[in-house]
Design a protein that fits this description.
The protein has 529 residues and is mainly α. It is built from 22 helices and two strands. It has a domain of 220 residues. β1 and β2 form a beta hairpin. It is found in: Cellular thylakoid membrane; Endomembrane system; Membrane.
């Protein structure tokens, strides 16, 4: 093979966005080594600029004619483009909310951003990985960076405890996942590419062998850990409570999006003959996640733990789209993750602002906040209402599409359970909002009574203000723009080769060719007609 042919087969331009993020990472690292702490004045903004440059590169890769790179190890199809964009954007918002938080703790901001960008690269590669070795290396890059970030506040015992728990449970889940894909490698006759594994399993007649069932269970266990699905959620509340809050925000969006991208690509391509089995397993995970996540959240007294159990419940809702196995279901899943990015990160920005000004994240201490900080109260209220699925915010349309896709696919029990648990979630979100808007002075918490003067001109506070306003505005207008966003998600599914075989097997037509009932289509201004 001559050099020109090798270059053509490598198709390295497909990973240009990841290359931009890696270059940005190296520049931040070098600047921190040379200039020290003084580089913190500009390195965060350079990192954000690099992430936005990567997103621009992703935009131009949407309609690429040859998405396969590195001899089949990486697939830059529209599905991976959307998920990589979600991870890059969540990383950019995380950096915005980290500047003041990290500097106030006295730790190095440059090292923090370097590790965060490393996790971002791992997540982006995981979204497009189409081969077992690439999947595992990408997964471990994301995981190890997450462990480091969780324990980044070395002087905080809670951060150290969270990192240790996350490391031990994460290492166990990685070992289980690795054993599952090694079984998959052996049963397929030594293939590592996902498409070749699916073909060989069908050809060799090992479609429902005991070894393949074990491989499927172990693979799902590894994925369920990443998306915080019950009963693989044990790490989530403790890690969320003890970790630096910006890292919790990134894990709740970026890491979860990477996990769902892995689930779609790996299960659809490598286990086509066991579609019914993995749908059954994910149905059980979705039921448990929706019930436990939303019910246990009712008893929480810490905002970070409440959002931890909320994220477990949200994972259960997203799994409804995965279980349907239809174009609509996958598109609804992608759409919900898009809007979840804004409403969840917006909520965490509000938690960071409150903790920076008061030093606590206890829900009871939010009492009367409206009288001292109306902007923070409004922002947190909008994000919580959207997470609860209240119209006209983005979360309502996200759940509407998910439940409609599940209903059309015949998952009536899951949809009804989703509706019931959504009502439960609204209760604990409204409880926080009600506490913030109490009007009687005697009901105000001591922390709020001594609330410091709001000063946005302090170092690192302006990025937090920009992040808060941006996420709240996006959460508000995403409902109005739900049709274009859903079309984007639907196109990502329809134009991705990894799902073509499964889409062909499904009898339910695509949203692109099927009209929803008029009363379920969002009209002008995000209203339901």
């Amino acid at each position: 093979m001559d050099f020109a042919s090798l270059v053509a087969q490598l198709n390295a331009g497909t990973i240009l966005p990841e290359g931009i993020v890696i270059t940005t990472l190296l520049l931040v690292l070098i600047a921190d080594l040379i200039a020290g702490r003084s580089s913190a004045r500009w390195t965060p903004y350079g990192a954000i600029a690099g992430l936005f440059a990567a997103m621009i590169a992703l935009y131009y890769q949407w309609d690429t004619s040859n998405p396969i790179a590195f001899l089949g190890e990486f697939n830059g199809d529209p599905l991976s483009v959307v998920f990589r964009g979600i991870i890059a954007l969540s990383s950019a918002v995380t950096i915005l909310m980290s500047i003041r938080y990290v500097e106030q703790t006295g730790t190095s901001l440059g090292e923090f951003i370097t590790i965060l960008l490393t996790a971002t690269v791992g997540g982006m590669f995981l979204c497009g990985a189409d081969e077992l070795v690439t999947i595992f290396v990408s997964l471990e890059t994301l995981s190890i960076s997450s462990y480091l970030l969780t324990g980044y506040m070395k002087r905080d015992p809670r951060s150290n405890e969270a990192a240790l728990k996350y490391l031990l449970i994460g290492a166990s889940s990685s070992a289980i996942f690795l054993y599952g894909i090694s079984l998959l490698y052996g049963l397929s006759g030594g293939e590592t590419r996902l498409s070749a594994i699916g073909t060989n399993l069908a050809t060799l007649g090992t479609g429902e062998s005991l070894g393949l069932v074990i491989a499927l269970v172990f693979v799902i266990a590894g994925i369920a850990f990443k998306i915080s699905a019950v009963p693989f959620h044990q790490w989530t509340p403790d890690v969320y409570e003890g970790s630096p809050t910006p890292i919790v925000a990134f894990l709740s969006v970026g890491s979860k999006a990477a996990g769902f991208a892995l689930a779609i690509r790996l299960l659809a391509a490598a286990f086509p003959s066991m579609e019914a089995q993995w749908h059954y397993v994910f149905t059980a995970l979705a039921v448990l996640s929706m019930i436990l996540g939303n019910v246990v959240a009712l008893t929480q007294t810490s905002m970070k733990r409440l959002l931890a159990y909320s994220s477990i419940g949200q994972a259960g809702f997203v799994m409804i789209g995965l279980i349907t196995g239809t174009t609509e279901g996958y598109a609804s899943m992608v759409f919900y993750l898009l809007v979840y990015l804004f409403m969840n990160l917006g909520g965490f920005i509000c938690v960071i602002l409150f903790s920076l000004r008061t030093g606590t994240d206890q829900i009871s201490e939010y009492a009367g906040l409206y009288q001292k900080d109306p902007l923070l109260t409004l922002g947190l209220s909008i994000c919580l209402l959207s997470l609860g699925g209240i119209p006209p915010f983005a979360g309502f349309f996200g759940k509407l599409y998910l439940f409609w896709a599940g209903w059309r696919a015949g998952a009536y029990g899951l949809v009804l359970l989703g509706l019931i648990t959504s009502v439960v979630s609204i209760y604990y979100y409204i409880r926080v909002i009600k506490m913030m808007v109490v009007k009687e002075p005697q009901e105000m918490s001591e922390v709020v009574k001594n609330y410091p003067e709001i000063r946005w001109n302090l170092p690192g506070m302006r990025p937090l203000q920009i992040g808060l306003i941006s996420t709240v505005v996006a959460t508000s207008i995403a409902g109005i723009l739900s049709n274009p966003l859903f079309t984007l998600a639907n196109d990502a599914i329809v134009n991705s080769s990894v799902l073509q075989a499964e889409i062909t097997r499904t009898a339910v037509p695509s949203v692109a060719t099927t009209k929803l009932p008029p009363n379920l289509l969002p009209g002008e201004g995000g209203q339901v007609l």
